Queue: 2 jobs
Job 1
Amino acid sequence: MHVFMLKDVITVRDISREDIESVIREALERKKAGPQRLKPELLKPELQGKLLASLFFEESTRTRQSHERAARNLGMDVCGFAGIEGTSVKKGEPFIDTVRMFRNYAASLFVIRHPKEGAPRYAADVLDVPVINAGDGCNSHPTQALLDLMTMTEKLGKIDGIKIALVGDLKNGRTTHSLLQALASFKNISVCLIAPESLCMPSHAVEEFASSASSENIITLAGSLQEVLDKVDVVYVTRIQRERFPEGIEGEIEYQKVTKGYNITRSILEGRKAGIMHPLPRNKHVLEIHFDVDQLPNAWYIQQAENGLYIREVLLRRLLSGSSSGIVGQAKTENGNLRLWQDIPIKDGQKQGEHFLYRLDNGTLIDHIEAGYGHVVLHVLGLQEQMIYARDIRSSRFGRKDVLGFPEKELTENELRLLALVTPRATVNIIRDRRVIRKGKIVLPSIIEGLVVCPNARCITQDDNYERVPRKFAVESQEPLKLRCHYCETPFGREGLKFAS
Ligand code: NCD
């Protein structure tokens, strides 16, 4: 059997196609056995009496109930809360204190839903037991994507080659973000996005799908469902997420504007094969799917919700059997690659940067800064004083450049990293007695901690949450710079840099 190597289920990005397929295969087998409690011979003794902490800091019906039902079917106990009303969260308790407390009650697996993006990842970093992300803000909902793909496999026999329209609130709907990421692992997928302009799929999600491993995957936009209804196998409808709009009258007006025109009715579907999916709940005031669709063979959303139970049973079993048999994949925290310098040979210590050396007996000379970025470097390093500055001068290698010199100063590691973030191609020269004694480019580690602030206002790391989560970013590329928040997964480049104070 394929070995499931994940410690946690936080994002679809961590789950391979093989894992997705093997989870679905097992869930389909479980479904054949029926929804009743598992037969005793199927129960894993090591799961008996284990405790699931089901922590829902946000509303839920299906996701919570199916995880809890699945746990009980496997012989586990369940504790936790459904919504923060009546909990000490209301008294200002930090997220991580609440989580740790359930670990003290011996919970051996956590299912966490939270309005702040990245909260489940933060818990997974702190806990020594598995965490399942049951939805974090608008970011992701990985187990929903698995049950969505299970439903498509069940109905269409395979996922490769699927043509699907994603409809509704593609900006705030976390289920569509995870589904799109999951589909990117398959072949010949055609995705069509249909959303009001203000609720369209984030551009980074579209780009990631378009650059996914399979070049035959295509993603397009359409103005209305009618345009594509005959061309797709699946229409994945989502609720307009009212709770993600601002409170008050302005938010309400904005919401009312975008809820019009996304209603699927029996008459639209007349004679059409496309299966209708929806993560549910649908909204009775809007009826993005009309009641009269429920009886049609196109209404896949009922079975879709049922499939959640089986997917979650498989996940609980695998996560718990994995850790108890010592199969713990995914390093808890990656130790950043600590190599800082990429040395460049020094040809003649006195000739290197000779125009500046006469003014710099000892110190640091930063060369090859992109023209116009010298002042940004100064600002970020807070080193306006004691410097030598040449602006927009000719460079044989880059056309134009800025150069900075700091007499009697060696930059700290953090200062060098900040420099590389702002101007990744810069070369740093260390000067002693008018000779360059070391020259190099700064190599960013694979993870940077602190230094910058996540650009996503809904991220758990933002100061206004008062959660004091240590900031952490994966460096996906240095040139051009591409960072990704370790928690909420938001990618950003140099233009999105905001420095930590
Ligand atoms: C979705 C969610 O919470 O993200 N529901 C679910 O988990 N099945 C979608 C929604 O709330 O609209």
Job 2
Amino acid sequence: MLQEHNPIYLDCNATTAVLPQVAAAVNQAMTQNYGNPSSSHITGIQAKDLMTRVRQKAKQAIAAEQGNIIFTSGATEGIQTAIFSALVHAKQQLVAGQEYCLLYGATEHKAVPNSLAHWNQILDINAKIIEIPVNNKGLLDLDFIASHAPKALLVCTMAVNNETGVYQNLKAIYDSLGGSNKSALWMVDCVQGLGKIQLDMTTMGIDYAPFSGHKLYAPKGIGFVYVAQHAPFTAFIAGGGQESGLRSGTENMPGLAALEVVFDALLGHNNLFVKEQQLYDFRQQLVETLQSVFPTMVINHDLAYSVATTINFSVKGFTSKEIMDLFDAANIRVSSGSACSSKVTRSFVLDAMGLESWQSESAIRLSFGPGNNQQDIDLACKRIKQAARALQSSCRLLSENSINQAVAADGLYLLNHENACCWIYVDKASKQMVVIDPLKPLSQRIENFARCQQLQVIAILDTHGHGDHQSARDELTHLLSSKQQCDHLGWPQSPQSADTDMIMIGEKPLQRIATPGHTHDSHCYLLQCGPHQSFAFVGDTILMGGLGRTNFDCSSSNMMYQSLQKLLPLLSQDTVLCCSHDYNNEFCSSLPIELARNSLLRQVSNQQIDVTQFIETKKQLDNQLEDQVGQTIVCGTIAGCDNAQVKHVGAEQLDQLSSDTIILDIREPHEYHLGQPIKNSINMPLSQLVNYIASHNEDRHRPHILICRSGTRSAVAASALVKFGFDNVAHFNGGYALN
Ligand code: PLP
């Protein structure tokens, strides 16, 4: 086991631990009171009694004097049961030629719209499925509901949102639906409401309400659905007639035993849950701690409209993934507010609320529950502070401490945003730096880095005027650079030497080469760091596995041909090619790698192609590019991802490693310092991997083992090493999480 124990679990909206008292009841139901409630012997009668008791307590807990409680496998089944019942009933009432709709809240759990679409199609109802918009507080548009309600067969809303904790005014929704005259059926997903708000099924006029046990300390696989007395019902699971024929299948008795303890807690029959006011105090303490350590943090919802147990926040300058990695290393489990879409992680809930894009991309959900106590929250706050201190020492957060504690930067750094690359070179001896292709979303990070490391910024350069993203050059130049004159790509107008195409970073020359083609203003920059170490910042002229596109208005394939003829002889076998994009997680390349896989480049290099043939081939490649990528701007032809095969190892192999093995811990420095890294490992974050590749030529035949949090970063880094000729590379599959 490489990872630490006793995590602070603050992801209760995803699921909860089973409380020891609940587990004891489950155990009892499995080993002693294990009867089948359909059996007529004493053991069966005892099981049936448990079921009757739990149903009664469920009714009390949600104030459902009338109507049915049907035990299910969880809320997703409850949602199916409700939607299926409502739509089977609706089908029988449909009037030909009339238009119908199914309404659901824009921030609903995906189980709802997906089930609506599924049953609408399967049952051939063909109602229009319409999303109810929410305002910037996440509250449903009541006028919209009122105007659509007359045509609605079913309206699905939620009591409490799982990402933000925002609760809806159920009484107001009921009134918008027509109150006691409402015609549409109404399902309220109460999964995140149980134990967080007062629920009252009868007076709220709800027809269906699904619930889930695992969100409130019961095990996964048990839940229940409330069905109002007069609401239409069709059994979703038929069979042996259990649950009075409403849901067949032998009942999950251990699950019911768990629910009993939870209901007892809700009804105040035991003291497992803290009082509501205590939960608000916990939230206050957590919010204050977060605000004190992350000055750029914002809370993504109005706390006045949210249950006490959820805090959804974003920290400017950090992606959700970065905060997740940090918190995981600090042994705090939170969740990114969302799922991963094709490009970046963003939250559809925050998008529906109309929050700024960065908030959605950076969202973190911290959620706790009534089973937490003061000690848990104190420990969480302590660890959040530790995490922030670690960020300061890695210069990601700026403070007095960070300036004094930072490990001196040295060499090349790669910072990415989506697939675009920004390069920073630091000359440790002179404390000078150059930035190439700064990206807007990274500007705060670059500024913090320069200030915390107390570096003198010699130049902030663009390789060309970027068409697909905004450069942060102007902004950063204003913040960091001396007032020297420079041209529109940032090249100083009054250079230190007579050579106007050369500037010095410490004692290292940085040469500018005009390489028009991709755009008329494209330039490459060549940095000579030693006899066998050089970096070529080739912008979008050469991409990994391709060449920059030349079909913009400001492009010229003719000029690209000339530019390549000028550039290629300046690159040595050892020159590391640093491109402006990394579409396939390759980090960097070299001329031998590119010549081996890029036939057009090879032909130019070998003089096997003339300019006319180049232009024709390039045109074909650029046309294919449009076909490949559709709407997104890709800046050039790129190779298919051909990640090298990398060996997997596990913790048990650590003892058998040869003494010359290099263990690289691929996590960020703050993660590395928070956790307990493997003994003798070297911290080599992804941002410095290219530097490692360039400066460890002599180690290419030594065994390397890479590790990170979950095995994703180590896998891509290992592939990059293999591509560069490191011939004995393995990584920990599953990272610290599984080893
Ligand atoms: N509805 C909401 C609001 C939820 O948060 C969840 C779980 O994440 C579900 C429905 C689905 O619940 P279950 O996991 O019990 O199927």
